[in-house]
Write a structure and sequence with these properties.
The chain is an alpha+beta fold and 276 residues long. 45% of the residues lie in helices and 24% in strands. It folds into two domains: 195 residues, no CATH class; 69 residues, no CATH class. The strands form three sheets. A four-stranded antiparallel sheet has the order 1-7-6-2. A three-stranded antiparallel sheet has the order 3-4-5. The longest helix is centred in the first third of the chain and has 27 residues. It is elongated, with a radius of gyration of 29 Å.
């Protein structure tokens, strides 16, 4: 079963995103790479710098021309941005347009509401957007990334979250994001998993009334009453704690260690009584 899921992970990675159902659930899982050699990490530092520059220029143009749609921004600026770094794979210019369009859309919305404090947004943190042409999962232990220096294989550290989604039949989406951890020389991947789910539609309802001493439920027109006597237990322990506190406060002072020890024991007894 484990090997089958690995194969499915690789096959479903490039699935057609237009075939999503109306009841699709998505989850994002963070996966960190192993610590990279300095020479390898330098490649991604260079890539991050070029990607940041493209996003900054696209955001300025989009905000200055009131563009909030990715399709329009790509149509007007893709070729110029692509020519900035011809050594980069062309799809980085494509994903940079997506990134910039989303940033511009959020800023223009804030400006329309009168909440924008600056004339244009600042590009501070950068997560590099990836599509299925720029990355691919090689099983569960490594990721292959397209860069200006060719494809670079990056080993990743497995965690229980990604294994849980893979083993439960979730499909790895074709889009992803990657961020650089400059302190540890690692890459941080944000992977998206998708799964088709069926909507649960209840056939009927049960009315339940919860009170201090009893719980009542209406099932098929018949009322069922369950007596708990919870108030007697609660009040009994309340008076007992009060007497213990008065006794130990007089003998040892407020908040003494013997007093706290007795209270811990009383708290455990009260919880056990409620469970019964």
């Amino acid at each position: 079963m484990y090997r089958a899921n690995i194969a499915r992970l690789a096959v479903d990675e490039g699935a057609d995103e237009e075939q999503r159902g109306a009841n699709e659930v998505t989850r994002t899982v963070i996966v960190r790479s192993e610590r990279l050699p300095r020479r390898t990490f330098k490649v991604f530092v260079e890539l991050e710098g070029m990607y940041r520059n493209m996003v900054e220029q696209l955001v300025l143009y989009a905000v200055g021309n009131n563009i909030a749609k990715f399709t329009r921004l790509k149509a007007e600026r893709y070729r110029e941005v692509r020519s900035l770094y011809p050594q980069l794979p062309s799809h980085y210019a494509y994903t940079a347009c997506q990134d910039a369009a989303e940033r511009a859309h959020s800023f223009l919305k804030l400006r329309k509401m009168g909440k924008a404090r600056k004339p244009h947004p600042e590009v501070r943190g950068v997560s590099i957007w990836l599509d299925d042409h720029l990355w691919r999962a090689e099983g569960l232990t490594s990721v292959s990334l397209a860069t200006h220096r060719g494809r670079v294989r990056v080993p990743v550290e497995l965690n229980r979250h990604i294994l849980r989604y893979v083993n439960r039949g979730w499909r790895l989406s074709s889009e992803a994001k990657v961020k650089l951890d400059h302190r540890d020389r690692r890459l941080v991947f944000y992977l998206t998993f998708r799964k088709e789910v069926s909507v649960y539609r209840p056939k009927n309802y049960i009315a339940v009334d919860v009170n201090e001493n009893a719980e009542a439920a209406l099932i098929d027109g018949v009322v069922y009453l369950l007596e708990t006597g919870l108030s007697k237990i609660t009040l009994g322990y309340y008076y007992r704690r009060k007497s213990v506190q008065e006794k130990y406060d007089r003998a040892y002072g407020p908040g003494s260690r013997p007093e706290r020890k007795v209270f811990r024991r009383l708290g455990g007894n009260e919880g056990a009584s409620r469970g019964r």
